[in-house]
Write a structure and sequence with these properties.
127 residues, 1 helix, 11 strands
């Protein structure tokens, strides 16, 4: 499956942004979708993940309920709605897909569980 993240941009602190992850070339519902972010020079950081059917979600503890992950398996797209954005949320956001998580036990918070990665979309939050 090929993934493409989009929808990044610039917002002021306290604002909201929705980013999307569009998939092609595979059966979308067979993949866990995860969102990660990475600041240059640092390790890729887990943000959120959603199971193939969409019934199970995972979030990073630091988010404190500011972000919501969802998916539309008809449109082959996953979403990350980001509210109350902070300057420290500024970075590149990646979406990733995992077929192994859908069929075997694993940790959706770990980048190594994901076989497919899209190019990132950049989010800038100004104070």
């Amino acid at each position: 499956v090929q993934l493409q993240a989009s929808g990044g941009g610039s917002v002021q602190a306290g604002g909201s942004l929705n980013i999307s992850c569009s998939a092609s070339g595979g059966t979308f519902r067979n993949y866990y979708i995860g969102w990660f972010r990475q600041v240059p020079g640092k390790e890729r950081e887990f943000v959120a993940a959603v199971s193939g059917p969409g019934g199970t979600t995972y979030y990073a503890d630091f988010l404190k309920d500011r972000f919501t992950i969802s998916r539309d398996n008809v449109k082959n797209t996953a979403y990350l709605k980001m509210n109350n954005l902070k300057p420290e949320d500024t970075t590149l956001y990646y979406c990733a897909g995992s077929s192994s998580l859908q069929t075997m036990y694993g940790n959706p918070r770990m980048p190594r569980e994901y076989e497919h990665w899209g190019q990132g979309t950049h989010v800038t939050v100004s104070s």
